[in-house]
Amino acid sequence: MNANQLINMVMRLFLRKALSRGIDAGIDRFSKGKGKGGGPEQSKQQAQQARRAIRMARRAGRM
pTM of whole model > 0.90? Predict the structure, then answer.
């Protein structure tokens, strides 16, 4: 394994983590307080459901 492959592997790891955090932050921000009633508990559930959907889409994209 040469240095270029090693650097690319590490960069992909960090990029994937940063992208995941950014998506989670965006979902949290978008789901806070906007929409009909429900309060914070429903917002949390919607955010969790959106995260699950994104994970499933990523898995489907790998196949």
Answer: no
